[in-house]
Amino acid sequence: MNLSEELAWRGLVKDKTIDNLSWLDEPKNFYHGVDGSSDSLTVGNLAALLLARRFIDAGWQAILLVGGATSLIGDPGGKEAERELKSPEEIKTNISAIGAQVEKLFAGKSFNLVNNQDWFDSVKFLDFLRDTGKHFSMTELMQRDFITERMGEGGSGISYAEFSYSLIQGYDFWNLYKNHQTILQIGGSDQWGNMLSGVSLIRKKEGAQVHALSMPLVVDKATGRKFGKSETGAVWLDPGKTSPTQFYQFWINTDDADVEDYLKIFTFLGRAEIEQVMNQQRHNPAARHAQQTLAKQVTELVHGQTDIIAAEGVTKYLTSQVSLAEANSQDLEELRQSIPVVSVSLGGSVIDALVQSHLAASNSDARRLLTSGAVYINGRSAGLDKENFEDGDFQNGHLLLRRGKAYKDSALVELKPSQP
What we know:
By secondary structure, the chain is an alpha/beta fold. The protein folds into three domains: about 5-215, Rossmann fold (3-Layer(aba) Sandwich); about 230-320, Tyrosyl-Transfer RNA Synthetase, CATH 1.10.240; about 340-415, RNA-binding S4 domain (Structural Genomics Hypothetical 15.5 Kd Protein In mrcA-pckA Intergenic Region, Chain A), CATH 3.10.290. It is about 45% helix and about 15% strand.
């Protein structure tokens, strides 16, 4: 399967300036950029980065840009209000951390990592207005989605700094075209307007035709929300912000409606392999074979083989494949990092534990869950009238309390030492 066919099959093409996707089948030079608004990338960023890896695997020469300069301004796209400016020192720290993540994700691949601050530090303001700003029509810029949303009725408005962001990204493309013969920019569809700025600028300044290609934003079909969020916030690639076990659990909890799409977007499994996985999934949905395959593939890609083993181990406890009686101190610590933890005395209230662990919103909510049979202890129904924890509920001083069928809705309940 050539690159154009693969991208189409995986659903990775939304907007394009290319008339025929077969143009992609002759490798050239491309770039993809990420900003430094945080010190870690998220799984939302991961989709476009893996798109870049597919281009590299197809023989394209890659420039991966970390936006030290653009991050000082902040991309207004997808934001309802003005971003808070970060200090140059914070941006520098973020760019260093993100650069390290990019290098890890692309280890063994051929690419050139650049920082746009390296060329913007020498760009003078008046020269930028004359040589770049002069080529942009206000009429064209005012039609960009992120501008109309902020300037329209009920919008929060937009500063000149954020309004100018698209010009800065356009300059990046022009600079990379001049110095690295880059003729394609790729990214998420939320970057489409910014990508068009570079295409237009190069045409006007150089009389040359270059192209842009965007992939659809990944959306959770069950919630309609932009992909990359969990109930506790963003899902980060940094293991210090989202542990490998939490990361693994995020993928394990993928909805059945999304899992095939995610296998295509976030893994390098081929068409035949994905079809085989989905056939097994349809044959026995309860086994969640597709989710397990997805979680293993993506966690190993981001965190490595050692962390995937630990993450799979924790999952075995959550799914009651392995008893907590067999958990060692490292396993228990992984569980503590992955799910809420509550300490109780022997005979402690099940209702209180449900509320303290946030599995229930209130005592009445907890009682409703209990009397409807939606509470589980160590994978087994707690019964309809379970008021207090008993000695037999604990395994090695611990038990797993769960609300409903979803393993993500679990808490670790630890038995307090008895008082002398």
